Amino acid sequence: MNNWPEYRLGELCTRITVGHVGSMTSRYTDKGVPFLRSQNIKRGHIDFSSIVYIDQDFHEELTKSQLKPGDLVIVRTGEPGTAAVVPAGIGLLNCSDLVIATPKSDMHAPFLCYAINETAQGFVRAHTVGAVQQHFNVRSAKELVLRVPSLEEQRAISGVLGALDDKIAINERIAATARSLSRVRGENAIRSHVGEIGVLGDYITITKGLSYSSMDLEAGDAYLVTLKCIDRSGTFQHRGLKPYSGRAKPSQFVKHGDVVVAQTDLTQRAEVLGRAARVVETIDGKHLVASLDLAIVRPTSFLTSDYLEILLGTREFREHASAYANGTTVLHLNARALPEFTFPVPDAALVDAVTNATRPLFDIAVQAQRESHVISNLRDTLLPQLMSGRLRVRDAEMIVEDAL
User: Fold this and answer.
1) Spatial contact of 274 and 314, defined as CB atoms under 8 Å apart
2) What sequence ranges are listed for the domain Type I restriction modification DNA specificity (predicted)?
């Protein structure tokens, strides 16, 4: 164990406050000042793929929640304690319902971010507000105890871990570019086709995911594919998987490349409802079972899963799905939404063209995602060892050099 002194987070920062709290739906604009929410904060970085905007006048009203480079943003609800650093060169930035911490001048913000991500989860469980949903408030954040070395050592540790995070960021850009190019190529081909209008239900099977109990959520030979596996861009996310040891029908198991569609939505703007994503198998090869919040959509004729993913990602299907949504707090997709969707039926040549154009790009995105998973596991293995002093920076640098 290292002999670094212990400090409370409140002693290491010039301010710890909370972002804007209140209804925001009516204040979003198509462009303007980026406005961070909990879903934008990932472990060690900010995800701008689902960013929303507010106008500059409202941004200037919200002085307390304005962000500057080097500020730490920490999730309060959902995945409480998850932290990221506001990067340099970001411009105007504001936020909602996040803990904001501004480190003192003798603190290295990236190091503090790593330290928070390493220690906050256990602390959050012990200082949770609310029995139903974990909630990390400003008072709890100020009391978070961290071990802190010299500024020189902080920078050295951040440099080692940052090299891994930089590679993860590169892979994420590769994957995002591949997915974007796949969608553009696929949709351009689909839109250029003029054919007889058909009903989707004639060309697919739809299987509901399973209903499960909490007792089934134990380590076994399978993972449960949940609603959190589909993000707002329609990308499959492994972090939404849950351990699963219960039973399932054969048709409720999903394999690599299968299409799943979100049947419920908790977001205010219905950003997930009706989203389709391609399943990506796990590195450990365990079975995957779809939960009740998802529908498994499989082609029964000459269509392919590649074609279905593009078709279900079009503006036409998104608008169609929106018209079939019902509910208030929790939105649900009517069971008729998928089978009643109408579209120009392609010929086999078009299906082959779309499949051949998009599948290699899907494979590129998956490979980048897998590599990032391996690197993030290495980072998460090194992090506690560096923080505890069990691993020296010099030894960690050699491990990272071999990995990259």
Assistant:
1) no
2) 2-175
Same domain for 260 and 339, yes or no, is: yes
Total number of domains in the chain: 3
Angle formed at CA 389 by CA 387 and CA 393, multiple of 5 degrees: 85
Nearest to 164 by CA among 57, 11, 43, 10: 43
Same domain, residue pair 303 and 202: yes
Q: Do 303 and 255 fall into the same domain?
A: yes
- What DSSP character marks residue 96? B
**DSSP 8-state class, residue 4:** P
C-beta separation of 354 from 186 below 8 A: yes
Digits of tens for pLDDT over the chain (404 positions)? 578 999 999 999 999 999 998 888 789 998 999 999 998 998 899 988 778 999 999 999 999 999 999 999 999 988 889 999 999 998 999 999 999 999 999 999 999 999 999 988 777 766 555 544 567 789 888 999 999 999 999 999 999 999 999 999 899 999 999 999 999 999 999 998 888 999 999 999 999 999 999 899 999 899 999 999 998 889 999 989 999 999 999 999 999 999 999 999 877 677 899 999 999 999 898 999 999 999 999 999 899 999 999 999 999 999 999 999 988 778 899 999 999 999 999 999 999 999 999 999 999 999 999 999 999 999 999 999 998 888 989 999 999 988 88
Residue 253 CA neighbour count, 13 Å, CB half? 12
| pTM exceeds cut of 0.85 | no
Print the domain residue range for 169. 149-193+353-404
